[in-house]
Amino acid sequence: MYLAYLDDSDTRSKNGKWQVLSAVIVKDSDFTTTELMSSLIVQDLMPEEKLAKFQEFHACELFGGYGVFEGIDQTKRLDAVKEILNLLHMPLAVVYGAVNSKLLSQEVFGSANPIDMCFRVCAEGIDKWLASKFFEEIEATLTLENANLP
Hints:
The protein is α+β, with helices and mostly antiparallel strands and 150 residues long. The chain has one domain. The protein has 6 helices and 3 strands. Strands 1-2-3 form a 3-stranded antiparallel β-sheet. Helix 1 (28-45) packs antiparallel against helix 4. The longest helix has 34 residues, at 114-147. The radius of gyration is 19 Å and the shape is flat.
């Protein structure tokens, strides 16, 4: 089984050109390690009084210094971003959907919700990734079975 963490590109800027929604896909057996390493990064970054207010991680808040990350030095926040990106050496996959909001507004379907469009593209990407993993596992199983034939 795989779990997907999703986060959107909220920048706190109403004039942002891009809407992005990304997902990090984690195998269930790697979940505890990923969760522990992520929580250690956040714990090292935040003073104790802010940890009590921490409920949900948003990358835009960490990057931009908003929410519970407000008042934390930019260098420390960007170092935390680097540490989180270093988690990608683990067996994780990243899938995303992106919409150029300015171009979208000029199209016939310009009133479509960019975050909804990103979610649908991202969900389709997750589905394709999962299907490829399924076929990889079947192929590996068949290869192993064939190797054991006399």
